[in-house]
Amino acid sequence: IKEETLRLINALGYYLVNGYGMTEIGITSVTLSMPFEERVKTSIGNPLPSVQYFIEDDGELVVKGDSVAQKMMINGAMVYTQGVFKTNDIVKYENGTYFIVGRKDDLFISDNGENVSPDDIEKLIDVDCEKLTILNYNNKLTGIFQISKYISKQGIEKIKSQISESFSKLDSSVRPSQYFFTYDHLMRDTEIKVSRKGVCRRIENKEINLIVPSELSCSEINNVNAEILNKVISLMSEVSGKKDIDMNAHFMLDLGCTSLDFYTLAYSINATFGVDFKFDNDENAYTAIGIAKRVEELL
């Protein structure tokens, strides 16, 4: 669990801590600290009595114990583990407890020969996009940013500026040498985090289409129905109480409206156009141009 999440939930008074487990080994450790500052350090705790932790020379965590799967079917063959399992997770032991550093197959060799964890790089990138991942793509450290297909021109320029600023703050040895945009989901519905290997595989299978930054445009702006656009602007003005609304203005960020106002707007759009503009769609557009394009698609 990310540190900011741990801090927020614990600050609200709920006891939330990190733990560690896998299908093949069960739950093997959990942070049991009571002090607030200890709970939010993202430690996965120390191994439970039924298991032992070992760290190999390359940093990979090996778990041994009675609760570890004794045998597994791998590529059609039965493999006997003898209660020892290599997790493929890179960990560090610090101040008497364990911390996850990243996945072994996600590591990237930097120019100075050091192993670089994409997870550490992602923590330093502050970009207002749907999702992002840093991975090894075509032997290059690469950033991939998922954006809404209803993003405005101003939104695109803002994200490009944020990427440039974030990258400039990174050491040259861990700075991605290229980045792409995509409208496709980086994370599947069944996943709890972005799988880098899965993303690379889906790129190869053309399930995720990458867009070079220089080729990213808002072609939908030129194609949207003017009548629909004007009506949407009128509805946004009515709900927000503001006049002269720019078609690229974000309903909440720029106009200062709330999520409840957005529900009201969505209801008005459905009633006006006879469509089913979903309240909980994570691809909802929040600008007049984006909403108008979405309405046109629904019609």
Task: Give a summary of the structure in a few sentences.
This protein has 299 residues and is an alpha+beta fold. Helix content is 29%, strand content 24%.
Overview of this protein structure:
- The protein has 299 residues and is of the alpha+beta class.
- The chain has 9 helices and 14 strands.
- The longest helix has 16 residues, at 153-168.
- A hairpin with a 2-residue loop joins β8 and β9.
- A 4-stranded antiparallel β-sheet has the order 4-5-8-9. A 3-stranded antiparallel β-sheet has the order 1-2-3, with no helix packed on it. A 3-stranded mixed β-sheet has the order 12-13-14.
- It has helices at residues 3-11, 36-39, 118-122, 153-168, 196-204, 220-223, 226-240, 259-273, 288-298; strands spanning 19-22, 26-30, 46-47, 51-55, 60-65, 71-74, 77-80, 84-94, 97-103, 108-109, 115-116, 131-137, 140-146, 178-182.
- The model has no long low-confidence stretch (mean pLDDT 87).
Helix content: 25-40%
* Uncertain residue segments: none
List the total number of helices: 9
Side-by-side strand order of the widest sheet: 4-5-8-9
What's the pLDDT, averaged over the residues? 87
Shape: elongated
The helix/strand order is HEEHEEEEEEEEEHEEHEHHHHH
Given helix and strand content, the structural type is alpha+beta
Could you tell me the strand content as a percent range? 15-25%
Computed over alpha carbons, the radius of gyration is: 24 Å
Termini Cα gap: 41 Å
Main sheet attributes: strand count, strand direction, barrel closure: 4 strands, antiparallel
Oligomerization state: single chain
Strands, total number: 14
